[in-house]
Amino acid sequence: MSCTGCSTATGGKPNGCKSNGGCSSGGCNRMNTYDWLRNLPIADMDSSCKVIEVSFNQGTRKDFFRNTALQPYDKGDLIAVEGVSGFDVGEVSLTGEIVRLQMKKRGVKEDNPEMKKVLRLATDRDIELRNQNKAREPEAVIRSRAIARQLKLDMKISQVEMQADGRKATFFYIADGRVDFRELIKVYASEFKVKVEMRQIGARQEAGKVGGIGSCGRELCCSTWLTDFKSVNTAAARYQNLSINQTKLSGQCGRLKCCLNYELDTYLDALQHFPDNCDVLQVAKGNAFLIKKDIFKNLMWYTLPDSNKQYPLSLDRVIKIKSLNQQGIRPDDLEPVEVVSSKPREMEPENVELVGQISLRTLEKAEKKKKQQQQQKNQRPQQRQQGGGQQNQQRQPGGQQQRPQKKQGGGQQQRPNQQNRNQQRPNQPNRNQQKPNQPNTPNG
Questions:
Q1: Do 23 and 111 fall into the same domain?
Q2: Which of helix, strand or coil describes residue 258?
């Protein structure tokens, strides 16, 4: 929720609801309250409420102050109010008739003489002094924890809140029992040069001051709107048929979640129609034990000792079996009800090829390119084999191969082969053959 005044960037603030709790809706502030009596006309100014509600430390602490000067204040105004030996600066959270309802809720009387007063609108000097003292808080938390550990006190300092003028500091601590911090106050007063006030809080109050996100995904109820903390026990989880799991039922404070009580009344009203003392039913097979109650379908689930199967029974059937058991009769069967789901059941295919559902074009292109290269490699040796067969076919039957023609002169003349050479030459004896014996002729 945001107001129209902060929808545009004005005064150096970013767009959106960034007025730090000063908008009329109060959506920026923690523990904010909507003034639904704001437009109510006031008949008598003398009988109007002269008390305003002021929030401190971003809404973690609220208090009521009397407007003695009857100066009109609007929600989100920074004002200076009375403090301990000085003044404090807070933010106006509620004005008008709605304040009376808040005072009645918290048990504060309007005519209380001890109620502190509003001094004035906060000046620039007041705001600057408050910011300087607020900057000391983180260092004070670390130092105060170290001092408490040195004194061996069983306590935890959760938060330190400085007054605007720096004269007082409130130390919020958590402890299981009583703590003797008389010596601790003296050390804190000498260390921080302030008046010390010790205030004990619980784990839930600490979670409200720190803040955070719950398991539901929303901000913690204790830090946004929940002011009074009611006791929560595991019976609330049992009535709602929740599993008793400490990790799931516990919040960030380590206690049971406050939201377990939100729907508890609805479950208790619905369980009034269910029969009592029906935890065990006697049948022929044995004793049937109650497992859970379904308030949405008006069914009670039982289990038998011979199997782990759960049997849903209607309320009328449970009442009838219980009346028979009181008469000493054991029925043969529980006669469970067939539970049919209204949600349509999705049919899943038997064989699902998950690989074929996702196709990447880059991988397909690379695969095609790889296949083409492989085919080209396979075609090359085939072409070589075909070329070698053609050469063998061109050879002559005698085993002689035609030689290419040789150019002689200007024309082309076929070179005679070995047979033509032998035909052109006359019959001559072989040189390797021996010459015949010749007769010896006399000399002279």
A1: yes
A2: helix
Across the range 284-308, mean pLDDT stands at 89
SS3 content of the chain, % helix, strand, coil (to 5): 30, 20, 50
Bridge partners of residue 283, in order along the sequence: 286
Backbone phi, then psi, for 48, in 5-degree steps? -70, 160
Between CA 79 and CA 58 the distance in angstroms is: 14
Residues 248 and 216: their CA atoms lie apart, in Å, by: 11
What is the tens place of the pLDDT at every residue in 328-346? 898 888 888 887 766 676 6
What is residue 37's predicted lDDT score, i.e. its pLDDT? 82
Amino acid at 195: K
- Structure pTM? 0.62
Same-domain pairing of 228 and 197: no
Does the pLDDT at position 282 exceed 60? yes
Pairing of strands 168-174, 195-200: parallel
Q: pLDDT digits over 189-237, tens only?
A: 999 999 999 999 989 989 988 888 998 999 899 888 888 888 899 999 9
Partnered with residue 79 across adjacent β-strands are: 90, 121
Contact 173, 157 (CB under 8 A): yes
CATH number at residue 140: 3.30.300.20
Instruction: Return the ∠ at Cα 79 (arms to 170 and 193), rounded to 5°.
Output: 30
Residues 444 and 426: their CA atoms lie apart, in Å, by: 35
Q: Is the pLDDT of residue 413 over 50?
A: no
Q: How far apart are CA 175 and CA 173, in angstroms?
A: 7
C-alpha of 138 from chain center: 28
Nearest to 55 by CA among 15, 26, 24: 26
Q: Which of 230, 251, 270 is the last residue of a domain?
A: 270
Radius of gyration over alpha carbons of the chain, in Å?
51
Same domain, 85 and 146: no
Residue ranges of the alpha helices (H) in 275-414? 315-326, 361-394
Say what the pLDDT of residue 412 is: 45
Query: Residue 424 — pLDDT band, cuts 50, 70, 90?
Result: very low
117 pLDDT higher than 50: yes
Distance CA 133, CA 166 (A): 6
Count of structural domains, the chain: 4
